[in-house]
């Protein structure tokens, strides 16, 4: 079934892409025009055999990020460019965890704008020297992509800022969204130039490229694709306000592995998938996964680490030792508290300064002793928000210094100039406490860097004598690194009084306690560095892609609604042509149909069969070669009323507890139950959960009680269902009943009542009529129907069927099942049954015509 989640992008993202061949010595440069997206080849994209290799290397990882890990400098004579590695780039640092035998190719933009005439030469230089593939974007397109959609819309929203007014974050702008789509498509073209999809792993980084996975999956159905989000992922209440929310979610689900820093971020993502796309997740053997059209999308939760070797090498520099000695002399007899933050609205610099002011007011004994050194890194974004943060920070620092300062003492030192790394590290070394009060931050590695620097080395230990190695952290509970720092003092940065008290606690804590906390943190940070993080992610990505080769897959959907269906080779779609052909050439047919969710959608409020369904059933029942059995969870009175027009239809009510042979027969029970006293125990428990779960209800049947929560809040309903299941199993442990959960329901029924009984009854009925089935069709949609599939499978392996029997066990949707076939939804099922009914009608017509001809001759 082809669906389309965003109609305006039909023309924007479809069609033909440039031809992709083997990578030669010179890479072709993808021509780009602002606002225009080149198109993908729809036919090739949807083909199972679309994964034609475009390069020949193996054991490669293609790392795709917004920026390449390079620094570019124009030569003094203007004759070209000089390039060097950016040692501070995370994308470069993660190579430490990949091993020497793995080739790494980088794809991204350069920080500097390269003239159009120089782009080919620069591309070749970067490929040959650095194995980097630059993505050149026109300045206007880059501005609308990065400073527009990324920084004005995604970044504020992911940090919980809603655009309630034009001054509070950027309102959604479809032109900026188109620029975002265009840039992601250009990045996809670059990946296609170098990828060998059979062997290469592709690792995409951060929110700038969230829809890139859709373009890549569309071109290469079996691509090995991972994504890591370095920012927070907001709760569903925040995220659902984004007009293109479904497109971004579906794009991420085109990955094999999605990584988050914390469980909270992953939980929010899973909640959004559940509430907006109706997808559920499962946890198995420590791994969390979402089933998406037959593919399992794995979820990885692991915070990134720091580059330990880089910090230690800078700690060993003579310049660092000199700077530490200088700072120790400068802050002699002072206690230094340190803050290192970017100058933006989410880092909480002004809140930190207010907490310092409150700290000095409440603890006058620290006046003249405690100094807050706030290093403000240049802002990555731009606009009025940044200017307001700067203005407020400067004015607050000035007020504190005027109020509490004295000759030779400034309680707040605000450093807004760019510092060398060794200078910044020197401040880490001499600081007694590090303060991180961000109101929202994806990860924040400042505390990790502080811990390593406080560990120091022998030369720095000599300067810091006689103090033992210790460190103290006051960190916001809203940053990604907070859960991993169990020894830190966690604070709500909005509570200025609490932060002030935390500062005093950090400074007055005993040396022994500080040392113990430092040792605990150091063990974690030193063993969970960036190399460990990268290696762990790629190991999980390899595991997630392990079954790619043996599965069948094909793509469906248009534009950003594209997704890949992946199936086990033995689990395939039931095509009408095949089953109708088998139906026509067989004589003894057993047809077993589930009703709820199979012939009638589960989401339908009116469950009564329509005239089309009744006509199909009548046509099938009139065929003398058929025995048609319909099974439902509904009570027998309802089924009697609904299917009164179907005289020859066999019915099973309440999942097989009641069975009726035809309209002239009485309802019979095939599981003798003499005592229903358990209902008096179960019903009050269900009523309790119904009262506390809005949108739930109880369905009382003669043989069972069912608690439905289809219209309740998905998360709360699921949680309540688990509690109810445990509660009922506990109170009914000595009763002859079974308690089961299914899709949006919890049911209590007598033991032995299953739909498998209906399948057994159907087969025994055919045996009584000396009909050896040569055609068997069994269709169901949920867990309760698996019992029917099991009976049919076992009978097929025995002697219950003809040796040449055609057996079609079919489930609704793609999911783990004992059935070997599937159809997408009730629409496809009704269409298939209509095909069978038409075949029966044609046979009846031919038979009647032949009879008429014989009578006419006589």
| Termini separation | 53 Å
- Radius of gyration, whole Å: 34 Å
Largest sheet: 9 strands, mixed
**Could you give the order of strands across the largest sheet?**
5-4-1-6-7-8-11-10-9
Q: What is the count of helical runs?
A: 27
Which percent range describes the beta-strand content?
A: 15-25%
Helix content: 25-40%
Features:
single chain, disordered C terminus, nine-stranded mixed sheet, 858 residues, 27 helices, alpha/beta
Q: Would you write up a description of this structure?
A:
The chain is α/β, with parallel strands linked by helices and 858 residues long. It is 40% helix and 19% strand. The strands form six sheets. Strands 5-4-1-6-7-8-11-10-9 form a nine-stranded mixed β-sheet, sandwiched between helices. Helix 20 runs parallel beside helix 27 and helix 21 packs across helix 27. The longest helix has 32 residues. The radius of gyration is 34 Å and the shape is elongated. The N terminus and C terminus are likely disordered.
Task: Put the structure in a nutshell.
The protein has 858 residues and is α/β, with parallel strands linked by helices. The longest helix has 32 residues, at 826-857. The chain is elongated, with a radius of gyration of 34 Å.
Give the arrangement of secondary structure elements.
Blueprint: H1 42-45, E1 60-67, E2 70-74, E3 81-85, H2 90-93, E4 103-109, H3 119-130, E5 132-134, H4 139-158, H5 174-194, E6 201-205, H6 212-219, E7 224-228, H7 236-239, H8 245-252, E8 257-260, H9 263-277, E9 281-284, E10 287-292, E11 295-301, H10 308-315, H11 318-330, E12 335-342, H12 349-362, E13 370-377, H13 384-404, E14 412-415, H14 421-430, E15 433-436, H15 446-455, H16 458-464, E16 473-476, E17 489-491, H17 496-508, H18 511-527, H19 530-544, E18 552-556, E19 563-567, E20 572-573, H20 576-584, E21 589-594, H21 611-622, E22 626-631, H22 636-642, E23 650-653, E24 658-660, E25 668-669, H23 679-692, E26 697-700, E27 705-708, H24 714-731, E28 737-742, E29 745-750, H25 755-768, E30 775-780, H26 786-797, E31 806-812, E32 821-823, H27 826-857
Parallel strand pairs: 1-4, 1-6, 4-5, 6-7, 7-8, 8-11, 12-13, 12-15, 13-14, 15-16, 16-17, 20-32, 21-22, 21-30, 22-23, 30-31, 31-32
Antiparallel strand pairs: 2-3, 9-10, 10-11, 18-19, 23-24, 24-25, 26-27, 27-29, 28-29
Helix pairs in contact: 4-5, 5-6, 11-14, 12-13, 12-17, 14-15, 15-18, 20-27, 21-27, 23-24, 25-26
